């Protein structure tokens, strides 16, 4: 799998889910802000009884034609919506055969960012739900963004970008992406480090944590002097605290691995708490997506 290039598209996956409407809008905004093309992708998983290449006159041919046309209509409708928001945007569409996860892994490897819609769940639903996007964390060389329906309209410019910091390589990549996002959207930045509660009992804990957080951000203030930055050190469960800080943010940015922090919060015992309960877009950045101050 080749790493994405500077002109690699923002890829947004669409299905028949209503959540994808918001994903298309957010992906179009990102592509426009970054000066990148937008690729709208729909994966069609064909039933075993009717193969994609069924020929005229064979059983299921009419159904297959309607099925293929329905997929094309999905991406065409999404393209019209994106063009309405950004008429100047370079937009292409694609309908690919295969299971959605497999298609996204195959085609998403050439993207600069993969965007998917997600549905916010209740506390009762979350333990039994599976996010189609969470399975891609760490599998792609580019960031993956999960976008729920916004509770409040989001402006194209301004607001706050929240980034989780834990000192890992993926955290460094997340900080780089978050600073870039804040600069492109004229947003403020909130950098948050979450420590386990038992750590707070150590003498000098907060001074040490604040120093580590400042070191993780060192150099970025010089590169982006226009960005207003707030630093927070909190103790508790990383997923719940980050979701709370980012409740009204433009997006929450985290790395896909860490020192028992974000990797555990995203993929361990509490993944659905962060994936399904963030109130805005969640962007998960892999460690190989590095940036330098």
Q: What can you see in these coordinates?
A:
- This protein has helices at residues 20-34, 61-85, 100-108, 169-184, 205-216, 220-223, 238-245, 262-267, 271-277; strands at residues 10-13, 38-44, 91-97, 113-117, 144-147, 160-164, 188-195, 229-235, 251-255, 282-285.
- It has 293 residues and is an alpha/beta fold.
- 42% of the residues are buried.
- The protein is elongated and about 75 Å long.
- The protein has two domains: 1-117, HUPs (Rossmann fold); 157-293, Rossmann fold (3-Layer(aba) Sandwich).
- This is Universal stress protein.
Q: How would you spell out the order of helices and strands?
A: EHEHEHEEEHEHHEHEHHE
How many domains make up the coordinates? 2
- How far is the N terminus from the C terminus? 26 Å
**In which range does the helix fraction lie?**
25-40%
Amount of beta strand:
15-25%
Give the strand order of the largest sheet, numbering strands 1, 2, ... along the chain: 3-2-1-4-5-10-9-6-7-8
Helical stretch tally: 9
Q: How many DSSP E strands? A: 10
Structural class: alpha/beta
Architecture (CATH level 2) name of the largest domain: 3-Layer(aba) Sandwich
Quote the CATH topology of the largest domain.
Rossmann fold
Low-confidence stretches: 122-130, 258-271
Assembly context of the chains: single chain
Taking all residues together, what is the mean pLDDT? 81
Sketch the major β-sheet. Answer: 10 strands, mixed
Q: Report the principal-axis shape.
A: elongated
């Amino acid at each position: 799998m080749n790493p994405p290039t500077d002109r690699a598209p923002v890829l947004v996956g669409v299905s028949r889910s209503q959540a994808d409407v918001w994903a298309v809008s957010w992906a179009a905004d990102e592509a426009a802000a970054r000066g990148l093309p937008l690729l709208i992708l729909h994966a069609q998983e064909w039933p075993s009884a009717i193969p994609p290449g069924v020929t005229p006159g064979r059983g299921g041919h009419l159904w297959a034609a309607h099925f293929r046309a329905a997929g094309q209509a999905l991406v065409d409708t999404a393209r019209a919506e994106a063009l309405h928001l950004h008429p100047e945007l370079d937009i292409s569409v694609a309908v690919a055969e295969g299971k959605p996860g497999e298609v996204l892994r195959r085609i998403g490897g050439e993207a600069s960012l993969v965007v998917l819609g997600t549905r916010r769940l209740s506390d009762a639903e979350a333990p039994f739900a599976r996010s189609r996007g969470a399975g891609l964390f760490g599998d792609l060389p580019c960031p993956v963004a999960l976008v729920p329906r916004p509770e409040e309209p989001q402006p194209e410019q301004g607001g706050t970008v929240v980034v989780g910091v834990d000192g890992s390589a993926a955290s460094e990549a997340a900080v780089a992406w978050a600073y870039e996002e804040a600069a492109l959207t004229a947003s403020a930045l909130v950098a948050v480090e979450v420590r386990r509660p038992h750590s707070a009992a150590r003498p000098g804990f907060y001074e040490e944590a604040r120093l580590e957080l400042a070191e993780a951000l060192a150099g970025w203030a010089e590169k982006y002097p226009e960005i207003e930055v707030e630093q927070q050190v909190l103790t508790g469960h990383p997923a719940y605290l980050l979701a709370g800080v980012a409740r009204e943010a433009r997006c929450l940015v985290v790395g896909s691995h860490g020192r028992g922090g974000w990797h555990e919060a995203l993929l361990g015992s509490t993944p659905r708490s962060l994936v399904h309960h963030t109130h805005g877009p969640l962007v998960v950045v892999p460690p190989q997506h590095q940036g330098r101050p």
